[in-house]
Amino acid sequence: xxxxxxxxxxxxxxxxxxTRNRARKKLxxxxxxxxxxCILKGIYxxxxxxxxxxxxxxxxxxxxxxxxxxxxxxxxxxxxKFREYKVFVRKLRKAYGKxxxxxxxxxxxxxxxxxxxxxxxxRYPTFVDALRDLDDALSMCFLFxxxxxxxxxxxxxIQLCRRLAVEFLNYVIxxxxxxxxxxxxKGIYYxxxxxxxxxxxxTPYAFAHDHPTDVDYRVMATFTEFYTTxxxxxxxxxxxxxxxxxxxxxxxxxxxxxxxxxxxxxxxDSESYLEKLSALSASLARAVAxxxxxxxxxxxxxxxxxxxxxxxxxxxxxxxxxxxxxxFEGLRFFLNREVPREPLAFxxxxxxxxxSWDKSLCIGATYDVxxxxxxxxxxxxxxxxxQVVGRYYLQPQWVFDSVNAKLCLPVADYFPGVLLxxxxxxxxTEQEGDYVPPEKLKLLAMQRGENxxxxxxxxxxxxxxxxxxDDNDKxxxxxDESEKEEEMKLKKLEEQKTQSSKAxxxxxxxxxxxxxxxxxxxxxxxxxxxxxxxxxxxxREKYLYKKIMFGKKRKVREANxxxxxxxxxxxxxKEEKKKSKKAR
Amino acid sequence: xxxxxxxxxxxxxxxxxxxxxxxxxNRVTSSKPRGLVVLFKMAAPAASPSFLGxxxxxxxxxxxRRRSRGSRNRKKSWKRWAGPEAQLGREIGDxxxxxxxxxxxxxxxxxxxxxxxxxxxxxxxxxKDRRLNKGKEKPLHVDLxxxxxxxxxxxxxxxxxxxxxxxxxxxxxxxxxxxxEKGVLPRAERRLRARLQRGGVPPPEKxxxxxxxxxxxxxxxxxxxDNPLERALAGQDGWFLQQTKKQRVKRPARLRTKPSQVPAVxxxxxxxxxxxxxxxxxxxxxRAHEVEVRKKRAEDKVERxxxxxxxTQLPTAATVFQEQCEGLLEESGDEEDGEPPxxxxxxxxxxxxxxxxxxxxxxxREKEARAxxxxxxxxxxxxxxxxxxxxxxxxxxxxxxxxxELLRRRQARxxxxxxxxxxxxxxxxxxxxxxxxxxxxxDELAESLRTLKPEGSVLRDRFKxxxxxxxxxxxxxxxxxxxxxxxxxxxxxxxxxx
Lengths: 584, 498
Prior knowledge:
The complex is a heterodimer of chains A (584) and B (498). Chain A is of the alpha/beta class. In chain A, helix 6 runs antiparallel to helix 7 and helix 11 packs parallel to helix 16. The longest helix of chain A is centred in the C-terminal third of the chain and has 45 residues. Chain B has 498 residues and is mostly helical. Chain B is extended and about 140 Å long. The chains are: A alpha/beta (584), B mainly alpha (498). Chains A and B meet through helix 5, helix 8, helix 10, helix 11 and strand 5 of A and helix 13 and helix 17 of B.
């Protein structure tokens, strides 16, 4: 034997990882710079499997990076820029200290800066990769664009975020790719389908918000820095895919309309342009004028291995989608000043509606309140004075609920001052056996084309009547019901008799045909097979199967419980209503 | 101050020679309140040494021979600030200090002030006084407080009148003038002239490139075949580019996988709607309640562990005293355990059993027995091995079972791994903690969109999401540490007020 003594921690996982401080020293960067670099390059810390082996026997919790990742970072040109920037700051401080103003100017002119374009290309080699990671970028940009210009982050960043967010909204409007909206207590969730990829993002409400203190703004600003670059390139590509000009140009005639009539300047030219764009009311100019031949039906290429049923289903889905896209087509909305303008204008325009608002509220209003062609006016106050005939006055939730239900909901539930039906989350998909709230059931029925509303109303009325009767005595009614049933039976028998009496007097007793219910037989056979299969199962599999079935049953049981609870709640509410009615 | 303090108010700021009567008075009034006596004691040393007093202590100090100050055999006593020069120095120092004080207080020497600057006319008639002393009213206290403490003007900023590096620049100019006389020009000048001679047009100045966060910056199609990023390198030899480090290092495929499978934007549960259904809202409330209960339980646990268990008696002063006195006081009752513990005779070490020496025969027999046992064992093993051929089926079954067991273990391990992947990892000193659930109670729910009060913050939600997806490690805000303790000084003006 013999040989050199093997030292500890010089091979294996100890050499694969590197602590943060060592990595920082290897790159010769300060900790904030290192953190920034890691975020920009998409290098994240790792948790080693055996901490003690990596940490030279110590179990102290440390931040580890993969050594190979850090070696990869060594090649990054931005690292040099960071170092240059450090030197620049030092020189600048020195010049300030010596009050050499000409040196200060010269240094400021040559301030080292870097761009992140190559990192975007490196991290997202294809456009689809970028689209898949768009959720974060959008959420961050929408969030930063609502920040006040208060010095928490650069004003330039806020402006850039606003610009990119508005550009993306305009793209979604033009491509009509919005699918779901959800008003939560935290913010508004949107989901759009961009080139086949679902993209979800959240925007905060436009109200004044507090700045949480437990958030590292520097880290968030670094993420935003990268995501703005990414979103810019994605926006460019998206606009190109729709044959739109980038940066977006407002359509010629709309531009003329939007110009203030008076000689007064509204704002600086660049600013007013962004504001006009963010009004979301004007259509965008295309690079090539659109031709109407575009709307030719798509050719169908049946996918191999697809049955006719699947094809049919796909076609149906496609049709539904097309219909959904044109939900508000032909409708003209007017937004009162108390409703949130931007989300509503965005959603209405996404589904083909026309929208306007008060001229003093925002730039870009296209028609007045008094316009007779307005079909819907969105109002969020308990009572509307001076109503105009020929338009619906609705609460804003109608727009959101209609989008989620994929159809224009009946307006009666959404009149001003009416207690609104609950706003359901479109992101929840119920599995089989789950509890489905009655509101959703109603909605599903409506989507299927039935009209459960009237039925239910009638039912309700009936119920109310019944209940009133109930108050008198319940037993009688039960008897009544049984009597009614008996009467029905008798009637049926009589009818049969009359029919038979009307028929020929000759009595031929035909041989009884035993109808073989094929379906039922099939079912029976299937259930029999299933039972046999269960019997043939191995012990372990059987155990598993039983467990699964038990879980399913439990789910059903829970759903039933919830339904019962709901019923109790509803009846309680109804009773209260009734009492209040009686009190009146 | 109702007593007759005559000596105090007879002159504005001039020192007054001490008189004999003062001392007498001092002695007389020694039974008076203490403050008064102190005042006088302070007044007495204020007299300048140039005035001669009448007492035995107030002779000319220069004339008096100094008392020798102890031994001179140690360096310490040599260094004493003594001797006639020191005396002179002290006097000069006092004088200069006095002058500085006068300058600070009045802006110049009081002796040089005109009478108007020191006195005002007092006729005894308030009306008349006001007329005569117009412009000499006592300023308001607020104004006085705002005045600088010293009347000596602050030194002027020298840098404001100086050119930085003026002498160096001047020397450089001189140098280039002399060079010019010789016909040597600086490089920039030479290049300019050469360009003029060539008659070339200066290259057009490029517009400064827009920064990465400039709101006006432009974008391009980065995923196209010929994007500006790669245009410069297109069509060149790959090997050359790699060796000259013009081509970027390829991103490892390892980095393509995300560190967590959690979606970037987690949509809030259905109960978080601004107008939720009854059931969803209840479900969300239940979840929030459970979180709170868990928190409460942990808190209670700590409290329980720290609390004093029931039934224990807290020490009182008496018990503490008794405990401290334990063993100090002789007690008459405890005398029975004076005898030493009984010695145990069994504890004596036993003699080791004596070993008989084995005979030659015994050794041989043992050896043979060992060899026989070994041989038998070997034979048995061989026999067993031969018999195994008939156990082939059961063996195969065993192997199969073992393989199945291995597979099961592997799958379990994988499942465990996957479950662990969904959890946020431990990436630093701190553990990830879920943010508190955003919930509005039933009476907080808004009736319409207009009256909605948003709950929680999207910024915090995003930040926590980044932590949850293992993109950044959880950290706490760095605390500001002061290197040196702060020293608190009360400003004089402020002290006067309080």
